[in-house]
Structures are given as structure tokens and as C-alpha cells.
Amino acid sequence: MGVVSDVKYSKLDADPGPEAYFPYSQSFFNRASDVVVRASGDPLALAPAVRKLISDIDRSQPPLDMQTLEGTLARSIAPHRFNLFLLGTFAGSALLLALIGIYGAMSYGVTQRTHEIGVRMALGARRGEIARMVIRQGMLVALTGIVTGIAAAFGLTRLMATLLYDVKPTDPLTFAAVVIALSTTSLLASWVPALKAARVDPLRALRYE
After folding, report:
1. Structural domain contains residue 72
2. Which of 8, 27, 105, 203 sits at a 20 to 30 Å CA gap from 151?
3. Domain boundary among 17, 43, 66
4. How far is Cα 183 from Cα 152, in angstroms, rounded to an integer?
5. Which residues contact 66 (CB under 8 A, 6 or more apart)?
6. What pLDDT is attached to residue 27?
7. With contact defined as beta carbons under 8 Å apart, do 186 and 149 qualify?
8. Helix/strand/coil (H, E, C) string of 148-182?
9. Number of domains in the chain
10. 60 Cβ partners below 8 Å, 6+ apart?
11. Are 92 and 146 contained in the same domain?
12. Phi first, then psi: what are they for 125, rounded to 5°?
């Protein structure tokens, strides 16, 4: 008699049910059995030898299907992997659109404020101060959107629970990584317009309409 740890037979995200192990010779269950063989190298190369060994033990139990553990695992998680691939693709597209949107909005804002920036520089504002002002304003808008998005994502985590394995929907490291990624993206998107604003010629800006 002994106790073993839980084993997942059907799906990784399925709760393990009660199981009992019996020696094959003493088993009173009339159903198919699974045989696991550890091999070095190509496991499928041992298929003929394993079939012969099983046939020598019990000719009434021909092996119907032989497959590797990696293949079984891959087929088990294939639907989840496909769903996560789609979500990752959409997330990457959304990040790219956010980068383009922030850059476009900041660049347009700098163009619209060219006269104001020229006045500031004519009154003594330094190029570094102008760049920091543009970046600060861009990051303020971006951080407001990030906080709102994180709050909405936190409220919708239950919809993602069925797609995750051994990861909590509210995993703090995941949320922290998202915040860092979006903040970095927003900073990069604001950087180029900030440099553009810092290079404005005060004389030309004062004549800008």
C-alpha cells in the first residue's frame, strides 16, 4: 500500500480525480490499460520491441496506439495554445497601434504648439526643458490610459481563467510586466516628438501660424 501524488490523465486544467493502482495480474477492471516506457533517443524506434513485449505478456491486449509523451501533451494543450496565440497576436497589434497612436498624437500636438514652444524658448526656456515638458505631458496621458486599462483588465480576469494553467488571473508579476511594457512603449512614442519640439527654431516658430 502507498500514496502517490495527483496525476492528470485527460487535461492539464482538469482537477485530478480519485485513482487506485493495481498490479496488472490482479486487476479486476476489464478495460484498456496504458503502458508508459522510458526511452533514450527516439522513443518511436522502440515501438516494435514494445509491441512484442506486450504481446508476450498478454496476447489479448494488442497495443492500439503508441505515441510519445511530448506528442500527447502537445495535443492536450493545442486548443489553449492556439487561443493564446490569437490573444498574443491581438495584444501585439494593440501595442503597435498604441505606439503609433501616441506618437501621432504627440507629434500633432507639437505641431499645433509650435508658436507656444517658440515663445517659451524666446523667453529663455532651454531645449532640455521643452523636451521634458513634451515627454511629461505624453506620459501623463499614457499613464492615465494604462491605469484605466489595468483596472478594466483586473475586472475581466475571470474570462481568462479557463485559458491559464498554474498561473493566477491576477498574477502580480504579469500585471507589473504589462505596466512596464506599456510605460516603455509610451516613453518611446513620446521621445521623438519631444526631440522635434526641442529643435524648434524660435524665430521661425514665432512667425508660425
Report:
1. no
2. 105
3. 66
4. 17
5. 44, 47, 50, 51
6. 65
7. no
8. HHHHHHHHCHHHHHHHCCCCCCCCHHHHHHHHHHH
9. 2
10. none
11. yes
12. -65, 140
Range of the domain at 52: 1-66
Q: Tell me whether residue 39 is in a domain.
A: yes
Last residue of one domain, picked from the residues 15, 42, 66: 66
Is pLDDT larger for residue 169 or for residue 128? Answer: 128
**pLDDT exceeds 70 at position 150:** yes
Mark whether 109 and 202 lie in a shared domain: yes
Q: Is residue 120 part of a domain?
A: yes
CA–CA separation, 94 and 89 (whole Å): 9
Q: Residue 200 carries which side chain, given as an amino acid letter?
A: V
Contacts (Cβ under 8 Å, ≥6 apart) of 77: 12, 165
- Given pLDDT bands bounded at 50, 70 and 90, which one contains residue 32? low
